[in-house]
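Q: Could you write out the predicted structure for this multi-component system? I'm mainly interested in how the pieces pack against one another.
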Amino acid sequence: MTKLSNKFYQREDVLLVAQELLGKVLVTKLAGNETAGRIVETEAYAGMEDKASHSYGGRRTKRNEVMYAEGGHAYIYLCYGIHHLFNVVTNKNDIPQAILIRALEPMWGIKHMMKRTGKAKTDETITKGPGNLSKAMGLSVAHSGFKLMGKYIFIADDGLVYPSQQIVSSPRIGVDYAGKDAQLPYRFFVKESRYVSGGK
DNA sequence: CGACCGATCGTCT
DNA sequence: GACGATCGGTCGA
């Protein structure tokens, strides 16, 4: 397993990076507990031009400030007052693009995931959906701005590559307010994974 | 199964 | 004062 480098995240094509993140392994080592899961669903948010993105029109606040940093940082924010959503910042400095990680297949540390989520059984809901996976991985807004190649949070490549016919795209979930941009096929997922959220 | 709804709070108007 | 890049429960068919 090799950690993805800055180069991986800082490329200019956020759609390409979102597709290539499928199959990679997200690892957290937080409060001494190590957990990992394989990424099976992502959504690209294409920056200032993208009405669904927090950085649409160059909007820049304390909350989304890290989107403007160089690729390779975590952007985590609170949604609906309850859920912490984990994003990967991409592209160069001052180009505010990010990729929302929407689903994982658990790989190890499942005991810790169950403890964090309070779930009694290990069905797929433990890491299905962006709010659920953040909880299982121990991620919260306290970790927004963390580097993705540090020792606490990173993404690694273990060599697995999904065949291209296994990778599908669709419009993004829950962005109806974005008008025409809500139709863009910026969501990518692994067709047959039972951990994928939302519709096919 | 699908539709609906409440929880809960930081951010922006 | 309104509204989410959500989730899980409930209700009815």
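A: Regarding packing and overall arrangement: Chain A has a mean pLDDT of 94.
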